[in-house]
Amino acid sequence: MKTLPILLIALIVAMWIGAIAILSVQNFTSVPLNLLTFRSIEIPLGLVLAFSVGIGVVGMAIVQLLLTSSQSPSKDD
Fold it and tell me: What is the pTM for the complete model shown?
């Protein structure tokens, strides 16, 4: 029964990759990243979206690992 969630996750990731690819081809304009008063070099919008999604996926994986490890009952022998 674990194959269905894995398939759904793979489909969602594939749709995100496809959407980023289409958007990056259609919008090749460069955008600067602004953080408070700092400004980065201008990079393509598709690359910004790809990095954002990648950081979000890795961040959520880390959060889930931390939450499941803190909620698991400890065995006292």
Answer: 0.58
